Amino acid sequence: MGKIIFYEDRNFQGRNYECSSECTDLHSHFNRCNSIRVDSGDWMVYERSNYMGYQYFLRKGDYPDYQRWMGFNDCVRSCRMIPANQGSHKMSIYERTEFGGQTMELTEDCPSLYERFHFNDIHSCKVMDGHWIFYEHPHYRGRQYLMRPGEYRRFHEWGSMSPRVGSIKRIAM
């Protein structure tokens, strides 16, 4: 069971809210979020309600201000715990929508999509095993997108405004 605590002010001050499961709308619990403490579990926090907007992957640890989790602002409106996975990871990525065009299979992290496959755009994907994170830029930088098991026929289905993916990382214990 995971536990995350959101604080309105920096350095774990001010009004706080403790959460141990996913929550689609945190707005009623706090107005802003300037620090977070993750006591256990892996979490994805979202800028907007219903798992929309900027996404931030957080592991156990202290985040005394929103810049520490690479936040663009102090707005956190939803969160979800990511189930622990000690097993295998498997994903297929496609160069076209609806699983069309060239396909590549991943079972390991990919620090630079371009260096490995000579392209940067993923238009659709199938996650067969495990949870993954797409990063906007190489070497796990930029905007993040949680990829849960399932099918994504178009890039906007994982919350992106663009098919650009620079790197891909497994979420593993």
From TrEMBL:
KW Repeat (keyword) present: yes
Pfam short name (any one): Crystall
Keywords: Eye lens protein, Repeat
Gene Ontology MF, one: structural constituent of eye lens
Domain of life: Eukaryota
InterPro entries: Beta/Gamma-Crystallin (IPR050252), Beta/gamma_crystallin (IPR001064), G_crystallin-like (IPR011024)
Domain Beta/gamma crystallin 'Greek key': 2-40, 41-83, 89-129, 130-172
Signal peptide feature range: none
Keyword Ribonucleoprotein: no
Any one of the GO BP annotations: visual perception
UniProt cross-references to PANTHER family, sorted A to Z: BETA/GAMMA CRYSTALLIN (PTHR11818), GAMMA-CRYSTALLIN D (PTHR11818:SF119)
Family, similarity comment: Belongs to the beta/gamma-crystallin family.
Free-text function comment from the UniProt entry: Crystallins are the dominant structural components of the vertebrate eye lens.
Protein name: Crystallin, gamma MX, like 1
Organism expressing this protein natively: Austrofundulus limnaeus (Annual killifish)
